[in-house]
Specification:
26% of the residues lie in helices and 39% in strands. By secondary structure, the protein is an alpha+beta fold. Strands 2, 3, 4, 5, 6, 7, 8 and 9 form an 8-stranded mixed beta sheet that branches. The termini are far apart.
Amino acid sequence: MFGLTDRSHAEHGNDHAYNGLKSRSPLFKEAHYVKSLLALLSLVALPVLAAEPTLYGRYEYIALPEIGGEVLKAKMDTGALTASLSAKDIETFTRDGDEWVRFRLGTKDASNKVYEHKIARISKIKTRSEEDEDEKDESAPTKRPVVDLELCLGNVKRTVEVNLTDRSSFNYPLLIGAKALREFGAAVNPARRFTADKPDC
């Protein structure tokens, strides 16, 4: 019993000495300061890592630097997966073992200039009979060539996948789907229109 009490007092004395050394030692104080500073910096960096998306309207102007710098009215559609560009005279061909596509821009005032792009992939798209109606009646999937195109929204330029199809029956020749919206870090407010400045990139 006596031995246990002595040992307890000895351990208590060692703890007291350790705490005293800890409070007086510059190394302990410096380590504590660095730890606190790192914790503070992580809190400051947190909002940057979780950046809010940029809010755009349901319709925006988007420039196509690789398609003659054309500026088109685009529909920002979270319900669509990929972006879609109105094109006509779409023809696929092989060049140096790769699949390419040539086409003309399918807009009202477009020139007859022919554009050629390497095909990224072929997509199967299910289309509704009326784009602006909330109908569930879908036709059989159609195959469309997909190309990587630079798009400019406001002052932000991104390369996104765009499928080519004749959209002349729709009001907007360019459709921006969910994948492209993610590339731009964009969120859509359906109640607003043309919130971004004219394309400048």
